[in-house]
């Protein structure tokens, strides 16, 4: 079992992939080594070519090549290239690596350190893998007379016991090379998550991207909830009223069916626009953005068509409102009317939209239904008031909702205040 485990560690799939990773590091070092050799040859008095120069000259070129590799590692795109190789060949879980180009000086320095380590260790091991195996095989063949003549052993080594130990010595060299390569691969695998992992800046960028994605999803969810929820409530009540008066009041039925047609057509258009934002590559889609100036009368007419009386006090010109405030105020009014239709159908609604200093105040009241069962929240519901509060808070305003005791009985009251900001404000 120990021999099998040792063999797997030295020659298993993970070890072999890490060997390939080391060889790639050596290949990446070659351009820098050749450039450095142009400096090392004249300075250190090497031969006419690098291959004919001394070992000291070649290692001098190696030492000069590492700083050049470190400079190349500072480029932002070097990190994704290094991550791709390390993820495939080092046997490290991919989630431990950072995504995308290096951001900021700290990430670039870590990427440069990794690239220098990779090519430095890979260059040494690649050279050993090229030079040592042929020599080790030759040593293993020392008992063969022709091989001894080819090696030209010194007289002190021309002994029978040396020839007998040749196979063992050659095998030991190959095992030592495999052990060194395995250890170097394990070292790189341990260092990879540290040097190629996400920095604090990367984590912050990922959190910001996630927050932006959630904000978009929440906004789309609010749009769908407010638009579709109000439309379904209105259509349900209109259809119910039309069914009850089908034989007695054909004119009302005709009016209710017209309102249903108008409501569904408009809602389908808004739904298609919202879903268009979710379609990848659909750049032509735009988010539905009805405003008080565009559709407040239509919204009130569709609500009244359900048989719910709505009284409106409009103390400000809707067209004079900033676009962002007008859009959010429309959705708030739409959700408030939708809640009244769902939980207190047929009860009169009093709506006031008036200025309050430098704010827009929206107040909506309706009597609480005597049948408490009609006021229960539908299954899966309860998000409307939260959405209203979110809309108000995002604009710097506030919202409150709840039952209120008054001289004319118990009433449900929704009150929202929105700052009258400019279009460019957020």
TrEMBL record:
Enzyme class: transferase
Stretches assigned to the Signal transduction histidine kinase subgroup 3 dimerisation and phosphoacceptor domain: 217-282
UniProt keyword Cytoplasm, yes or no: no
GO MF: kinase activity
Keywords: ATP-binding, Kinase, Membrane, Nucleotide-binding, Phosphoprotein, Transferase, Transmembrane, Transmembrane helix, Two-component regulatory system
Recorded catalytic activity of this chain's protein: ATP + protein L-histidine = ADP + protein N-phospho-L-histidine
Regions annotated as coiled coil: none
Membrane spanning residue stretches: 20-43, 55-77, 112-141, 161-189
Pfam family, one: HisKA_3
Region (Disordered): 367-386
Annotated InterPro entries: HATPase_C_sf, Sensor_HK_TwoCompSys, Sig_transdc_His_kin_sub3_dim/P
Gene3D superfamilies: 1.20.5.1930, Histidine kinase-like ATPase, C-terminal domain
Superkingdom of origin: Bacteria
Protein name, per record: histidine kinase
Protein source organism: Streptomyces polyasparticus
């Amino acid at each position: 079992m120990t021999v099998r485990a040792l063999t797997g560690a030295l020659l298993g799939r993970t070890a072999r992939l890490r060997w390939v990773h080391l060889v790639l590091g050596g290949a990446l070092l070659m351009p820098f080594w050749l450039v450095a050799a142009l400096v090392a040859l004249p300075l250190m008095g090497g031969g006419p070519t690098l291959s004919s120069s001394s070992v000291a000259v070649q290692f001098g070129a190696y030492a000069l090549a590492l700083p050049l590799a470190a400079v190349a590692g500072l480029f932002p795109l070097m990190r994704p290239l290094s991550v791709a190789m390390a993820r495939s060949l080092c046997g490290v879980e991919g989630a431990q690596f950072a995504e995308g180009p290096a951001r900021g000086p700290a990430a670039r320095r870590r990427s440069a350190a990794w690239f220098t380590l990779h090519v430095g260790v890979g260059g040494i091991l690649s050279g050993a893998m090229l030079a040592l195996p042929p020599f080790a095989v030759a040593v293993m063949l020392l008992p063969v007379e022709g091989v001894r003549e080819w090696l030209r052993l010194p007289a002190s080594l021309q002994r029978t016991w040396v020839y007998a130990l040749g196979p063992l010595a050659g095998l030991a060299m190959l095992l030592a090379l495999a052990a060194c390569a395995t250890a170097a691969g394990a070292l790189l695998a341990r260092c990879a998550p540290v040097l190629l992992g996400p920095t604090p800046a990367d984590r912050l960028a990922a959190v910001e991207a996630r927050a932006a994605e959630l904000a978009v999803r929440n906004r789309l969810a609010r749009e769908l909830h407010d638009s579709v929820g109000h439309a379904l409530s209105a259509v349900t009540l209109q259809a119910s009223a039309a069914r009850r008066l089908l034989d007695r009041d054909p004119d009302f039925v005709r009016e209710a069916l017209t309102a249903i047609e108008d409501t569904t057509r408009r809602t389908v258009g808004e739904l298609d626009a919202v879903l268009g934002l979710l379609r990848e590559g659909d750049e032509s889609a735009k988010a539905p953005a009805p405003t008080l100036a565009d559709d407040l009368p239509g919204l009130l007419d569709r609500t009244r068509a359900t048989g719910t009386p709505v009284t409106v006090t409009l103390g400000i010109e809707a067209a004079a409102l900033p676009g962002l405030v007008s859009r959010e105020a429309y959705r708030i009014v739409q959700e408030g009317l939708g809640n009244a239709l769902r939980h207190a159908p047929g009860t009169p609604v009093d709506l006031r939209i008036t200025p309050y200093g430098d704010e827009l105040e929206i107040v909506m009241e309706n009597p609480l239904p005597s049948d408490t069962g009609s006021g229960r929240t539908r299954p899966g519901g309860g998000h409307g008031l939260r959405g209203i509060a979110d809309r108000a808070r995002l604009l710097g305003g506030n919202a409150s909702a709840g039952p209120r005791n008054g001289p004319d009985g118990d009433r449900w009251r929704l009150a929202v205040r929105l700052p009258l900001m400019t279009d460019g404000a957020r």
